Amino acid sequence: MKGYTLIEILIVLVIISIISTFAVLTIGYNKNKQIEILGNKISNLILLAEEQAILQPAVFNFVVSENTFQFYQFDAAEKKWRAVSDDLLKKYTFPAEFEIALQNPPLIISSNGETSAFVLLIGKKNKSPVYKITGAGDGTFSKGWINEK
Question: For 1-36, what is each residue's pLDDT tens digit?
């Protein structure tokens, strides 16, 4: 008789399930890593904007849209906000599967380097946020996972 024994089929199923488990865990890890990288990028850009505000002196506003975020600079002469065209503080697009919510808007960075108090939440679209950046209002902020792993 030709064919596979029950033991051979079970061994193949166990191997496939182990490989599938690692693949699923890796994909989940990569998404969380991407969220953490995005959070670090935003916090570093806010720090850069604080330093830029002190050096110029200028007032900046951080604005989040559907899948972009951008800094605006206040033009005192015209009394209006203008998009920053600087290479570092330019408009950034983030992956459409992620969502950024800015609570207590607007996030204003004053010319003395201090920010308005803010909470910025990052997560997968239509799911609970998993990463949080919190600004204290004195130019300092903290960042990290909402539910520690």
Answer: 677 888 888 888 888 888 877 777 666 567 788 899
Helix, strand and coil percent figures for the chain, each rounded to 5: 35, 30, 35
User: Which tokens belong to 4?
Assistant: 């596979």
In tens, the pLDDT along 81-104 reads: 999 988 889 999 999 999 999 987
Domain ranges of the chain: 6-145
Buried b (16+ CB within 10 A) or exposed e, 105-144: eebbbbeebbbeebbbbbbbeeeebbbbbebeeebebebe
- Backbone φ, ψ for residue 91 (5° rounding): -75, 130
Question: Whole-model pTM?
Answer: 0.77
Identify whether the C-beta of residue 105 lies closer than 8 Å to the C-beta of residue 118.
yes
CATH number listed for the domain at residues 6-145: 3.55.40.10
Q: ∠99-88-67 over CA atoms, to 5°? A: 20
With a CB cutoff of 8 Å and minimum separation 6, the contacts of 106 are 61, 62, 63, 116
- Whether 35 contacts 49, CB under 8 Å: no
Report yes or no: 129 and 123 within 8 Å, Cβ to Cβ: yes
